[in-house]
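hey
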């Protein structure tokens, strides 16, 4: 009996962590929506090049979200392999964010784009990357692993 209650307690703790992370994901989505609303209210339109880059980032985040959904629905199978895929996607997202930061934000005075569009782009990309970090945490908690716990220093 004691072991089954311990397992139940662990399951409840896991569910609470997942719920907390999903609430944080909702907050992140809200911040993204506010970025888009602010851009619309100020009349800031992202040029096609930046829109394509945002879509590329969102495609990667969507892939990670799909894996996370599977992990939450049915946390079984090869945990190491599943988390390897999750971490590879996260690394790809981080690399893309760093690439965009170097190309656009660090060279804002040298590029031919409106500065306010580049700043808006940076906010969107940064929040998308934070959202992806939360997606990773949900997958980790679904499998009761906590391998990726250090904070990301590379925010925009």
């Amino acid at each position: 009996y004691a072991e089954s209650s311990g397992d139940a307690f662990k399951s409840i703790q896991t569910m609470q962590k997942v719920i907390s992370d999903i609430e944080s994901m909702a907050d992140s989505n809200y911040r993204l929506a506010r970025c888009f609303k602010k851009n619309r209210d100020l009349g800031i339109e992202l040029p096609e090049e930046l829109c394509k880059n945002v879509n590329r980032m969102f495609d990667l985040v969507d892939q990670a979200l799909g894996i996370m959904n599977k992990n939450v629905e049915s946390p079984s199978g090869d945990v190491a392999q599943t988390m390897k895929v999750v971490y590879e996607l996260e690394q790809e997202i981080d690399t893309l964010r760093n690439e965009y930061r170097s190309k656009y934000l660090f060279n804002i005075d040298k590029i031919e784009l409106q500065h306010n569009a580049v700043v808006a782009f940076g906010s969107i990309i940064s929040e998308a990357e934070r959202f992806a970090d939360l997606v990773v945490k949900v997958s980790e908690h679904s499998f009761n692993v906590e391998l990726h716990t250090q904070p990301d220093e590379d925010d925009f």
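Residues 69 and 146 are 18 Å apart (CA to CA). The two ends are 50 Å apart (CA to CA).
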